[in-house]
Specification:
This protein is of the alpha+beta class. Helix content is 39%, strand content 31%. The strands form three sheets. The protein has a five-stranded antiparallel sheet. A four-stranded antiparallel sheet has the order 3-4-5-6, with no helix packed on it. Strands 1-2 form a two-stranded antiparallel sheet. β7 (145-152) and β8 (157-169) form a beta hairpin.
């Protein structure tokens, strides 16, 4: 009588590059203010401290730029983004016309240097856009920060506006982030221009559970171009209208979910109609272990 031997195939472990890519992708999803906790948990899963610490600065840099991390220092207030990175770990604050080096692990800016803008006309447009957007952010996001960047080409000027506001409340078991990015181009003969935007909302609630909210909305609008001041004000109103629509849409979804969906999410009580006392069970296990000794 012959017996067939069954072999169980195990997935091969990831190589170094695949591990780095996977960890980087997961850390980009880390909720605002929780990068360190996510890094610590992934470090335990990867079980390769050498790799994790070698790549830590790069992981953190990607997270900071993706989340528009705000920098507030003396004579400097700007967001860290891929749009104002001059070289590796060196960033530009166009509003204060300074550049600085940023240590992503220590979360500390240093080596501030003057960085004046040579294009006076483009800078005038950028400043008007920044002031109008800043007024909007101040009204709607008490802790928010915005930055406007300019990219000059031979044919047109490209403006990129970013705004960010976050709250991190670990004592209340929640954190949240609202950010948006807006891009449009201007040529000398522009009467109007297309504006593209991406609004991202991220929230995490982790009291006796682990609930994530990730919402991304793409926006396409047309902006009428007149002079600097009027165009900047129209742009700020465009941003306000789009973001209000996203917020109102979320509130409507929450109201729809409140009754049928939330009730379905809740775990039903057992036949005793009482919740299970996990703390009591843990205490009982400790007592039993002590008796057995």
């Amino acid at each position: 009588m012959s017996t067939e031997q069954c072999s169980t195939e195990h997935p091969s472990p990831l190589d170094r590059q695949e591990t780095v890519q996977t960890v980087s992708r997961l850390l980009k999803q880390a909720p605002p203010g929780e990068f360190n906790e996510a890094f610590r948990d992934l470090r335990a899963l990867v079980e390769d401290d050498g790799l994790m610490w070698e790549e830590a600065s790069g992981f953190c840099a990607v997270h900071n730029k993706d989340h528009f991390t705000p920098i507030r220092a003396e004579g400097c207030e700007v967001l860290l983004t891929r749009h104002n990175e001059l070289e590796e770990n060196r960033f530009l604050d166009p509003q204060n016309q300074v550049s600085f080096r940023y240590d992503h692990l220590k979360k500390k800016p240093s080596d501030f240097q003057a960085h004046p803008e040579e294009d006076e006309k483009g800078e005038q447009w950028r400043r008007e856009l920044h002031e109008s957007l800043k007024a909007y952010v101040k009204e709607h996001y008490p802790e928010g920060v915005c930055s406007v960047f300019i990219k000059d080409t031979a044919v047109r000027k490209i403006f990129v506006a970013c705004l960010e506001s976050h709250q991190h409340k670990p004592s209340a078991f929640w954190s949240g982030l609202w950010k948006s990015e807006w891009t449009f181009a201007l040529t000398p003969a522009s009467a109007s221009t297309g504006v593209t935007g991406t609004i991202t909302v991220q929230a995490h609630y982790f009291e006796d559970g682990n609930v994530h909210l990730n919402v991304t909305r793409d926006v396409e609008e047309t902006l009428r171009v007149t002079d600097e001041a009027q165009t900047a004000q129209a742009f700020a109103k465009l941003v306000e209208k789009a973001e209000n629509q996203v917020q109102n849409g979320l509130m409507e979804e929450y109201q729809k979910m409140e009754n049928p969906y939330v009730k379905a999410f809740r775990r039903q009580l057992p036949i005793t109609h009482t919740t299970f006392d996990w703390a009591r069970m843990a205490t009982a296990k400790i007592v039993v272990a002590h008796i057995n000794q």
